[in-house]
Write a structure and sequence with these properties.
mainly alpha; two-stranded antiparallel sheet
Length: 94
């Protein structure tokens, strides 16, 4: 799953469910969330993985850090959701 998250380009996001599906485990969205929560690897852009419907979700306990990292990539967060989700959602070619 970490390999899938590494493929998410800057300025784009994917949902926990999307990552699970792309990693070949379509029913493992909750597992992706747990992995992202505990991941401390600098080579894995965990901040680009969001909850369903555009909610930003957690980020190891620091929502403000996640907001800042997303904003630095040009992603606008309004309230607890990604604005213009259709534009920022990563849809890789298969």
């Amino acid at each position: 799953m970490l390999a899938t998250v590494r493929r998410i380009p800057p300025g784009r996001v994917a949902t926990y469910g999307d990552v699970a599906e792309l990693a070949g485990r379509p029913r493992a969205a909750r597992a992706v969330g747990n992995i992202m929560r505990d991941c401390r690897r600098r080579d894995v852009p965990c901040h680009r993985v969001i909850a369903a419907g555009g909610r930003i979700g957690g980020y190891g306990g620091s929502e403000m850090l996640k907001r800042s990292l997303l904003a630095a990539e040009g992603i606008i967060v309004s309230g607890l959701r990604i604005r213009d989700l259709d534009r920022t959602l990563w849809r890789p070619r298969r």
